[in-house]
């Protein structure tokens, strides 16, 4: 009997030990899962700032094998609009609220147009809408915002990558960047060390394992962006037909007004290109061409929907860059019958651009360093081919506001009263003051 009691106690002890071990094992697994999840996926837990304000924490996504592009079904369009009268909504960014409430309708501020003040000037005055005179297209407000995915070819990230991402962070859903294997400092390594930490929930940097040397900048950009597409789109999932994909060089900055329009409205043609203001070194120095053959913006950013890439380009971005996607008239006709009208559209024009092409825009030491690098490599890419060998001209352009004129190139100094001087992030942030400090 005593032996049986001892065996029973032994059995109970063994059972309890197993239960404790299982509980401990479960707790350890939960902790490990939490650590892994917190490291690899966006986390929406909150932390308190010094002002006792709750600030969301977003984990980096560069180390996630497959990133699920966030759905925007939960996004309320009311965050972008104001109700000035019952069921009359106007875009916050483009409306004069006081006048609109008095008149009971949307009254637009300068450079905004449309029935709800949601169309920026560069769209309104482009060949697409012709200031509202083109009756072939109808702009419609979406029920939910669309997603925008941007691909950047990066050769020099000084200031410009920061500006691009900070400028468009609230409107773009994913940024993908690509750099050559010898690019220094490496964007990928910098991101791992905390570069752009507040924005890493939307950044996927990719490093190419080969170099591509070519004199013409547009060819380099096409090559790099094609490589980025081949590697990058496979890292993404949950595509939607109306997702917009944009392909750009890091020196090109698309206006927030235009991005907002693309995000909130339907009815515009595609594919679309962006007419940018060509600048050199600073946002107040605009380049002017004295030659009809000159291309001051060698690679214009361009975009289209995912549906366009799939149905017309068969996932081949090279065809998209060469404008050969819609050469098959039967395929084009079928697309337009099932989806929407295809027409090339350039957003903006010379007088009202849709963004900025800021060549070598950084501080003075950075400019000199990059010019020296290009001299050694024998580069003839814009804008250096005009005066690469003339040190005195370069020094003059960096340090003085006086106009410079040559056979092929001249400059115009942009006044600080120009409403399109620079992106808001540049105008409002002291760390970019060196880019706008010498305006008239």
From TrEMBL:
<dbReference type="GO" id="GO:0003830">
    <property type="term" value="F:beta-1,4-mannosylglycoprotein 4-beta-N-acetylglucosaminyltransferase activity"/>
</dbReference>
<keyword id="KW-0472">Membrane</keyword>
<feature type="transmembrane region" description="Helical">
    <location>
        <begin position="21"/>
        <end position="37"/>
    </location>
</feature>
<dbReference type="GO" id="GO:0016020">
    <property type="term" value="C:membrane"/>
</dbReference>
<dbReference type="GO" id="GO:0006044">
    <property type="term" value="P:N-acetylglucosamine metabolic process"/>
</dbReference>
<keyword id="KW-0812">Transmembrane</keyword>
<protein>
    <submittedName>
        <fullName>Beta-1,4-mannosyl-glycoprotein 4-beta-N-acetylglucosaminyltransferase</fullName>
    </submittedName>
</protein>
<keyword id="KW-1133">Transmembrane helix</keyword>
<dbReference type="InterPro" id="IPR006813">
    <property type="entry name" value="Glyco_trans_17"/>
</dbReference>
